[in-house]
Amino acid sequence: MSNKSGERQVAYYRSKDPISNLRIRVTLKKLTASTMFPVDDDKPNVTAKNKVSAKEKLDQFKKGKTAESETTVVSFGEKRFSHREVLKYSSDIAINAGESGGATTDKTLQNDSYRSTCRTDFGGDPQKRPNNRIFTYVQGDGFVEDYETRAMTDDPNESQSYLSRQMANLRRRPNATSDKTSHFGKSKALVVETPTEEAKKASHYLQKTGVTFHVMADLTPAAAAGGTEEHTEQDEHLLCTINVSSSGVITLLPDFNRHRPPYTVVSDRERREVYEYTIEHVSSEMTGRDRLRERKVMHEIYARHHEYLLKSVGQEFELPQPGMLRLNTFGQLVSASNFEYDSGLYVQYYLDVPPMWWADPNCQITGVTQRCTSSVAQNGKDETCNFCFPFEFELFYRNDGLENDAAAVSTWPVMFVEVLSLDSWLRFRTEGYGWVRLPMTPGCHTLEVHCWRPTGDNSVGSELRRFFVGGSPELEDITYSALPTTHQGVILSKYGLKTESTGTVTVSFNTVMQSQLFMGQALKGGGGAGRRKQVAMIDRLGGHSMQATVASVLDTFMKTRSRMRSAREGLIRA
């Protein structure tokens, strides 16, 4: 994927191959009149007024004829020296400066290697380099470290902040080795009041997050080759940056051209010379034999990892009995909103377990939250009491075929809530009743319970008593807010019960269902009403339970019959 950043694009890639196999081809050409307006022999009437697409512009760039062009292929981490670096590391001043450093560090060893290469391979002559303008900076070069701490704007008067200087100092430090890290284990003093500078440098490390590689271009005018001008750092311009993180993500800025036109870079000299360049991916592809070998190795790795997981987890996974459904619900009472007296609000909940269901003996089906005072919600309107009170239910269902009531088969567990308030004057009030059915589908669910409370005769005296003294009409059976457990008729009439709507209670559920019926994929396909699916599933569970009961009876009968035969044969032989 890529994100646009001005005219360039930053791209992110991920690869399992070693990063050393990455190869890119960079083509740099100076923009002149012949390259800007190339004339094709087949089309002599082409003028600058014609519209040129990005693909045609890229083709014209590849066909352009100019003497100042360079094409090079570089690998990730490959060092290509610039004209200025060859002169720098070949001079005697640089050698003396490196030898007078004292202690040997990774930076010193890298500089010594550069000096040896520039003096031995090139003989101090920049013209003997295989490259001309295009060169690279690798991890450990000064440019890679200073590039992260450069100014954020193009203001030449901008100064580096103290934080950026300190972070740059941390980035320059190498990774802590085993000898240095073991110092912390041997140290007896956990806190050093007055640490020395050496102790600070030895104790503070920042692990590097990746390796950075820069492809540069030296845009010094050609006249500098005659000695009239010098190659300076101001003439070095960044063409491409490749960063490989520790997680294997490759960041490329800018991205490969592909169908895009060439990128442009302008020198800082008075002539303001313009160069165009392209970046192409030219890594060699894997052969068929190597691809098969890699696939075989990955298959072996995955097989070993699978065996390791089996040994760690085991194969004894607890399953419910045939024809049984296990329902695990993990949830919480999130909040209560818009109740009349929201000072010292708390909620009582109760789970109604219908016939053919039973709860685990260690499961608590009732509970009370803590008291909470309301606060204004994020929308600035609702008064909300946040409880975040957790609860957990583990229920089992099994239809033994002993119930003939079809309505009882489809009954699902219901959770009842009762909202109460107790203020600082110990005035107790009932704020509302509500109920919610446990989710019938596995997954995460967030439901709102709309509550109501009985008002009694709804007189002024009852409201005054509720305000000054406390107390209000209550339900003797909390299940009356939905369908009472004692109700046996077909129609339930609540006519004459005076009620008043109050607030809402937000409840979240995380539901997990387990049954051997799911292993057989009895319920296939999506869509449809969830309630009808669950009723059909419960009906199937009842049929499976009946089949399991019959099978167990037949099994017992066959075992008894075989024992009787063996006993009869023993008597005949005797």
Care to describe what's here?
This protein is α+β, with helices and mostly antiparallel strands and 574 residues long. Helix content is 29%, strand content 28%. The protein is built from 14 helices and 20 strands. The protein has helices at 33-36, 54-63, 83-90, 92-99, 106-120, 142-147, 162-172, 178-186, 197-203, 288-313, 406-409, 460-468, 516-519, 530-573; strands at residues 2-5, 8-14, 23-30, 69-75, 134-137, 210-218, 236-245, 249-253, 263-266, 274-281, 324-337, 345-352, 357-359, 366-368, 375-376, 383-398, 414-422, 428-437, 443-454, 499-514. A six-stranded antiparallel beta sheet has the order 1-2-8-7-6-5. Strands 11, 13, 15, 16, 19 and 20 form a six-stranded antiparallel beta sheet that branches. Helix 3 (83-90) crosses helix 5. It is elongated. Residues 1-6, 94-103, 172-186, 402-408 and 525-532 have low confidence and may be disordered.
Strand-helix topology:
Layout: E1 2-5, E2 8-14, E3 23-30, H1 33-36, H2 54-63, E4 69-75, H3 83-90, H4 92-99, H5 106-120, E5 134-137, H6 142-147, H7 162-172, H8 178-186, H9 197-203, E6 210-218, E7 236-245, E8 249-253, E9 263-266, E10 274-281, H10 288-313, E11 324-337, E12 345-352, E13 357-359, E14 366-368, E15 375-376, E16 383-398, H11 406-409, E17 414-422, E18 428-437, E19 443-454, H12 460-468, E20 499-514, H13 516-519, H14 530-573
Antiparallel strand pairs: 1-2, 2-8, 3-4, 3-10, 5-6, 6-7, 7-8, 9-10, 11-16, 11-20, 12-14, 12-17, 13-16, 15-16, 17-18, 19-20
